[in-house]
């Protein structure tokens, strides 16, 4: 692709971003993987996110967040007390 064509394409992206109200960037690889995990969790529990109750949405968001953290070696839940503790 020539430099002129690249500039023209970049200019078109800037116009689209302005019309959308801000800067738009392509998703990152981690972002795509997180989204895939999220929809996998939704399928696993039979939840259609766009029709889910607030409680169901919170549930799949938390399962996704914790699963993602575990898969990436992050520490999860050290400061959270179990529900059954006094």
How would you portray this structure in words?
Helix 2 crosses helix 3. The chain is mainly α and 86 residues long. The chain has helices at 3-20, 29-44, 54-71. Helices cover 60% and strands 0% of the residues. Residues 80-86 have low confidence and may be disordered. It is elongated and about 50 Å long.
Summarize the structure.
The protein is mainly alpha-helical. The protein has helices spanning 3-20, 29-44, 54-71. The radius of gyration is 20 Å and the shape is elongated.
Could you list the spans in which at least 5 consecutive residues all have pLDDT below 50?
80-86
- Cα-atom radius of gyration: 20 Å
In percent terms, what proportion of residues is strand? Answer: under 5%
DSSP helix fraction: 55-70%
First-last Cα distance = 65 Å
Q: What class do helices, strands and sheet pairing give?
A: mainly alpha
Order of helices and strands: HHH
- The helix count comes to 3
What's the story with the biggest beta sheet? none
Tally of strands = 0
Coarse morphology: elongated
Layout of SSEs?
Layout: H1 3-20, H2 29-44, H3 54-71
Helix pairs in contact: 2-3
Supply database-style keywords.
single chain; 86 residues; mainly alpha; 3 helices; disordered C terminus
């Amino acid at each position: 692709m020539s430099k002129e064509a690249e500039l023209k394409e970049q200019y078109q992206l800037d116009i689209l971003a302005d019309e959308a109200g801000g800067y738009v960037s392509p998703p990152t690889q981690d972002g795509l993987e997180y989204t895939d995990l999220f929809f996998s969790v939704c399928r696993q529990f039979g939840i259609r996110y766009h029709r889910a109750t607030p409680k169901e949405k919170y549930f799949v968001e938390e399962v996704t967040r914790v699963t993602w953290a575990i898969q990436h070696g992050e520490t999860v839940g050290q400061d959270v007390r179990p529900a059954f503790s006094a």
